[in-house]
Design a protein that fits this description.
This protein is mainly beta. Helices cover about 15% and strands about 45% of the residues. The protein starts with a helix and ends with a strand.
Length: about 190
């Protein structure tokens, strides 16, 4: 009887240790790195109340991460998403997230939704063959602000774009470095 218990115990231990915990393989996630796909337009350290801070992205369906890849054909995705956060300093050590109504965002290309972060959507333009996003965030009050792209990631100097692929296709994650961020991963600015 003891042999049966030990055999079952060994079998269960073997099954548990051989479980695949790599969700990326299960969900067909692929990762590449392509710099400068997202930009802060006309970065300056000082804005005026009423101006808008524009974030844009425009990249072709064929990218080069050491080899050419047709991301539209590979993923079947009409959209890539990323996120960013705008915060206002409320005292020497604390920041609060700045939110506005979606109707206050100046959506020129792509789409955006604002809550505790801006959920940005680059939409594929079939005529130009580009994924496009351009949205202005209204600066409504004076103060010291910062913006970061690391809301859904651990990265401090890049943004992570993720394809919204059909269920049977690859999900492409593009890590893209951004210029204009400080070593902590923030774009700092003041609104007067």
């Amino acid at each position: 009887m003891k042999k049966v218990h030990y055999t079952i115990l060994i079998l269960v231990a073997f099954l548990v240790t051989n479980c695949d915990t790599n969700d990326d393989g299960f969900y067909n996630n692929v990762f590449i790195e392509v710099p400068n796909l997202v930009t802060i337009e006309s970065p300056t350290t000082t804005y005026s109340v009423g101006q808008k801070l524009y974030v844009s992205s425009q990249f072709p369906r064929i990218l080069n991460d050491g080899a050419l890849i047709d991301i539209y054909q590979t993923t079947g995705a009409n959209e890539f998403v990323f996120s960013y956060v705008i915060e206002k300093q409320i005292n020497a050590t604390e920041w609060e997230v700045v939110t506005v109504n979606d109707s206050q965002l100046d959506i020129v290309k792509g789409n955006a939704q604002n809550g505790s972060y801006v959920y940005a959507t680059c939409q594929y333009n079939t005529v130009s063959g580009l994924y496009e996003y351009r949205v202005g965030f209204p600066l409504l009050s004076t103060g010291t602000y910062r913006m970061s792209f690391g809301y859904n990631s651990d990265s401090v100097n890049s943004v992570e774009l993720r394809s919204l692929s059909p269920a049977t296709r690859l999900i492409l994650n593009i890590n893209s470095t951004i210029t204009g961020l400080n070593p902590s991963g923030y774009y700092n600015f003041t609104v007067n």
